[in-house]
Specification:
Pfam families: 2OG-FeII_Oxy_3. InterPro entries: Pro_4_hyd_alph_FE2OG_OXY. It comes from Fusarium oligoseptatum. This is Prolyl 4-hydroxylase alpha subunit Fe(2+) 2OG dioxygenase domain-containing protein. The strands form 6 sheets. The protein has an 8-stranded antiparallel beta sheet. It has 757 residues and is of the alpha+beta class. It folds into 4 domains: 206 residues, Jelly Rolls, CATH 2.60.120; 173 residues, no CATH class; 149 residues; 150 residues, no CATH class. The chain is elongated and about 120 Å long. Helix 8 packs antiparallel against helix 9 and helix 12 runs parallel beside helix 14.
């Protein structure tokens, strides 16, 4: 491998690879029966590859660091034995992490370490040299992005020093790997053996005066014993900016994704009811933690494959997620005398997160006990996240048949808990294995995928948020509807395995209020059922902030009022409404009316103003004191006045409001309306139909809708006329005033409308 280094730095790279038994997901093309969809999709994914390896090393000439150790001084290069002993006197025995413990055990790790605060790198060119090395690391590991190297430790391996096989923990956000720079120091032994997915890379630092090695964090690596001299290294944590987009579009454009597209389309063409697999899991090459798994944290082939899936599935009704899978097996084992009755063993431990020390769990092959008989086993999806790393759900059921690779849990490292003899019970062991995967799920399979868990309401909220996106396809709304119907239907196909909480309900309300993409009307009944399924007051208080925001986002007062009445229907007796719900309805109604004071109001808003008054103890007083002033501010809106007066007369006529007092309010608003409105805005239904037709052929549909919202039809004027006759008195003379105003505006009415008057 050639590298581009500063004039004073020259690198020669050695890629010594040794074939090892085990799963190798990156080194070959799989030949499969083209008739098998599962194999076709597996081949299509695994044939997506980029240049890059899991680990590499390089000899570097004339790399200058200018090392200065506090309490010792400038360190000569090559390192002398005298100064090595001086630095060791300032160092501490390096610990290692095992599970949640931090241990110093020289039988596992025997080396000395100095923290960055104990030394300095004073050469002014060192940072530039390091940046060039990082560029070469990115190229070799197949990373399309800028790498940040953060100094971690200085390590000194004397004769006999070593470190058993282990993996590195994630010590800083965005960390993906480790860089080791071997400074000039004569030594023998100390080779680093790196293993991943059945491949090995051997780094022999003793071969070169100066060298470096780098690898991904989940690569198992072992430092063999130093046989003479001192192995002297600087270790760096390698990280990427998590906000940096990867990979670039140019990289994707070089990849042939047609086979993947064909496999996905073939899968979607099958009848959903007859699909052998509703969704698939594809095992990734690298391991990831729950804290770090996301698209931007993926490495090498994982990254480009998931990015390709994302691009292809974005054009189809298919979603892509990331998931950690778990397999647990428990059973009896052959008795093996051991000083401990109960202990845990780790093989390339992968349960770590952020760590305070250099490395994570040791590999202890001798301590892992084979199960004689499996008495209990379990497969689960530990966690499922979207590509941004946000948790969607946890604890889903897992069927191994849905994993694209066969025997995916075979020949991988795991964790063991061993229990010796207890009374009459023989020794037992429990094994845990974990895999990182990408999940491919058609939209019509999402309800089945998410219903495999009865504890997390997150899938409902996740789907609801997806439905709120401007380009959300209809298939997502269908999936959300199906998931909601199962949540409220314990006898359904999926059973009562979908739960809801306040956050999920708030998101569903937001979707239900979206006029462009309406859910099934039954969703409102489901929400009310959820409210009544527990302490109504407590549940309403939990969701009221979120649903208030959703209601106030309605495009007009009529839509907002409809949402309020759907959530809290107006009963004959207000006492039948729970206090928290009634308080919310009243407060939200007031906010809606206050916000509408400066909006354009039309025919859909007038009836809502009357209806909202019935949440209050004295509806007529509310109409007179709160609503009438708003009507007065919009007295030029013919449609608002006509629709409001019509609903007001209906409520008085059927006894919902006291007749005489209501007629007084009616007359007051009618008088103002007759003198202020422009009757030339009245249209027949025929004219409305024609206007809508013209709008479809180039006119502004939105502008037309605004104009029509404040217009009244001839039929509505007829209804108004009947109301005026009913409310009229000799003193008010409403009918005569109405006819006179209509006559005066007649010259402005279009000729086509005259026959309809």
């Amino acid at each position: 491998m050639a590298s581009v280094l500063p004039p004073s730095v020259k690198a020669e790279v050695s890629d010594v690879k040794v074939d090892m038994p085990g799963r190798d997901a990156t080194s070959h093309t799989i030949s499969v029966d083209p008739g098998d969809l599962k194999d076709e999709l597996l081949q299509a994914i695994e044939n997506i590859q980029v240049d890059g390896t899991f680990a590499s090393s390089a000899a570097v000439n004339r790399l200058s660091a200018g090392v200065f150790v506090h309490g010792v001084g400038d360190i000569a290069m090559p390192l002398t034995e005298f100064q090595a002993c001086q630095m060791i006197a300032k160092a501490r025995q390096a610990p290692y992490g095992k599970g949640s413990e931090t241990i110093v055990d020289t039988s596992v790790r025997n080396t000395w370490e100095l923290d960055p605060g104990q030394f300095e790198l004073r050469d002014p060119t060192w940072i530039a040299q390091l940046q060039i090395l990082c560029k070469q690391v990115a190229k070799t590991l197949g990373i399309n992005g800028t790498i940040k190297a953060e100094l971690y430790k200085m390590l000194i391996y004397e004769k006999g020093a070593m470190f058993k096989a282990h993996t590195d923990t994630e010590k800083i956000p965005g960390m993906f790997g480790t860089l080791v720079v071997c400074l000039p120091s004569t030594h023998q032994g100390g080779d680093v053996v790196l293993r991943h997915n059945g491949q090995a890379h051997v780094f022999a630092s003793s071969t070169y005066a100066q060298s470096c090695a780098f690898w991904y964090s989940d690569v198992s690596h072992e430092v063999l014993p130093v046989t003479s001299g001192y192995r002297w290294v600087l270790t760096y944590n390698l990280a990427l900016d998590p906000t940096q987009p990867r990979p670039s579009a140019s990289l994707l454009s070089q990849i042939n994704t047609q086979p993947l597209r064909q496999a996905l389309n073939r899968w979607l063409a099958e009848d959903p009811e007859n699909r052998e697999n509703e969704y698939f899991y594809h095992v990734l090459d690298h391991d990831y933690t729950e804290a770090s798994i996301s698209l931007n944290a993926l490495k090498a082939h994982d990254l480009i494959r998931v990015q390709a899936l994302k691009e292809e599935c974005s054009k189809l009704p298919v979603d892509v997620y990331l998931a950690l899978l778990k397999k647990m097996e428990s059973g009896s084992v052959e008795y093996c005398p051991d000083p401990y009755d109960r202990r845990s063993f780790y093989r390339s431990g992968y349960y770590g997160g952020y760590g305070d020390y250099d490395d994570d769990d040791e590999e202890d092959e001798d301590g892992f006990h084979a199960l004689d008989e499996v008495l209990e086993s379990e497969h689960k999806v530990l966690t499922l996240v979207d590509l941004d790393g946000h948790t969607v759900t946890k604890g889903l059921e897992l069927d191994e048949e849905d994993i694209l690779q066969e025997d995916a849990f075979e020949d991988i490292d795991g964790r063991e808990e061993y229990e010796g003899y207890m009374g009459n019970s023989g020794p037992m062991a429990t094994h845990w294995y974990r895999l990182a995967t990408v999940v491919i799920a058609p939209h019509d399979s999402l309800p089945s995928l998410f219903a495999g868990n009865g504890e997390s309401p997150s899938p409902v909220a996740h789907l609801a948020r997806r439905c709120l996106l401007s380009q959300a396809p209809e298939s997502l709304f269908v999936a959300l509807d199906t998931l909601l119907s199962e949540a409220w239907n314990p006898t359904g196909r999926l059973g009562s395995r979908v739960s809801l909480d306040a956050a999920a309900v708030q998101e569903v309300v937001r979707v239900a209020l979206n006029r462009e993409r309406k859910l099934e009307p039954a969703v409102w009944d489901w929400i009310k059922e959820w409210l009544s399924g527990g302490d109504v007051n407590q549940r309403f208080k939990a969701i009221q902030k979120g649903i208030t925001s959703a209601v106030l986002l309605g495009t007009n007062l009529g839509q907002r009022a409809e949402a309020i009445t759907r959530l809290v229907p107006i009963p004959d007796q207000l006492s039948s409404i729970e206090p928290a719900a009634l308080d919310w309805a009243r407060e939200t109604a007031r906010q809606c009316l206050e916000n509408s004071a400066t909006n354009v109001l039309g025919s859909v808003d007038g009836p809502s103003m009357v209806d909202l008054a019935f949440y209050f103890d004295d509806p007529l007083a509310f109409l007179s004191e709160t609503v009438a002033p708003i009507i007065a501010k919009h007295n030029a809106s013919l449609a608002l006045a006509v629709s409001f007066l019509s609903r007001l007369m209906d409520k008085a006529s059927n006894g919902k409001l006291p007749l005489e007092n209501t007629l007084q309010l009616y007359r007051s608003i009618a008088k103002s309306m007759i003198t202020s409105v422009d009757f030339t805005k009245a249209q027949s239904h025929h004219s409305l139909d024609e206007s809508m037709k013209r709008a479809r052929y180039g006119c502004s549909l939105d502008q037309l809708r605004r104009e029509l919202s404040v217009s009244a039809t001839i039929r509505e004027l007829s209804t108004l006329f009947r109301g005026l006759k009913k409310a009229d008195t000799d003193a008010d003379n409403l009918v005569a005033s109405f006819v006179a105003k209509l006559t005066s505006d007649c010259s402005g009415i279009k000729a086509a409308e005259i026959p309809h008057l």
